[in-house]
Amino acid sequence: MALNRKETDETGRNWERPDQDGQKFQGHLVTALLRSGVCLTLQDARGRYVFITNLPDSWALPDRSEPRDVDIYGAEFAGRLDEAKARVRNSGNAERVHAERADGRFFEFFIESYPDGADIAILTTVTELTEERRREKVLKSLLREVSHRSKNLMAIIQSIASQTARSSGSLASFLPNFYGRLHSLSKSQDLITDSSWRGAKFRDLAHQQGAKYFRDVAKAMHLSGDNPNLSPNETVHVGLALHELIVNALAASRLNGGTPRIQLECTVTDKAGVETASIDWRELRNLQDIQSDNEEEQDAFGSAVLNRIAPSALDGTARYGDVEGIISYTLTFPLHANH
């Protein structure tokens, strides 16, 4: 029977030539269905299979007997399908049943009633959703990770704000220190985001932290040694430590109208099977580069970052020295970027 679009297809998306040979048309449809890869099954009113096309290779049809759900899918899942098909027959409402295989593959069975003269047949479409399911799990995992990292980031910002406020005598002294630390944090976060949350290379981080304060970072900061991958947590806290060192160096050198002379070296060693990074800062100052009492007060939080906050967050140690005009700082911690 030819399809009359106006009477039988309200969607306006189906059409067939009304004067074509019905038997040929049926053959063409069967060929198209088989080649589409779509799994369709049709069962008559008694539950007997009329046809099954493109059954997923997670299951197999019996060799020499008429197929039944229990033979194809096993007793447990066949029972679920039988219950769903009975409900669809009685109510006329389509249902979806899902099956997850032991190998992780995931399938959806869309079951709907199909008029077969005076009887009701059951048409089932089986779709594999394994990849969609995997993407959904990955997305949920990423959202949880973003939520976790956002909370950590907010905690760091809150700590920076409160600690900077305690170390500042006025709003005028608070704002530049706070904005500088936020800028350091944001630049570290940019590197983390650009790397898809893997972290950052040490030299990229050092360059990012110095770019705000030096026109020529390579000239102001001589970088040498290894260039390890830093985890997101390491990136944030090493970045904060570098920021404090750079700001302190600038504050001291400006007293004499000079520029800082900085050597920064990173060395990676194996300690008892654990990769350990040691970041060594060496800054040459003139003996008269002495900060005022007010500047020392402003650097109280900076000192806490260098000596307590950064090493604690990295499960490492820190050592700060000031001997005859040479400022030294060594931050040592186990690398977690590759674990």
UniProtKB/TrEMBL annotation:
InterPro entries in the record: Sig_transdc_His_kinase_HWE (IPR011102)
Task: Specify the superkingdom.
Answer: Bacteria
Residues spanning the membrane: none
Known EC number: 2.7.13.3
Which enzyme class? transferase
Among its keywords, does the record have NADP?
no
Identify the residues that the record assigns to the Signal transduction histidine kinase HWE region domain, covering every copy: 145-227
The segments labelled Disordered in the record are 1-22
Q: Which reaction does it catalyse?
A: ATP + protein L-histidine = ADP + protein N-phospho-L-histidine
- This chain belongs to the protein called histidine kinase
Task: State the species of origin.
Answer: Nitratireductor arenosus
Q: What is the lineage of its organism?
A: Bacteria, Pseudomonadati, Pseudomonadota, Alphaproteobacteria, Hyphomicrobiales
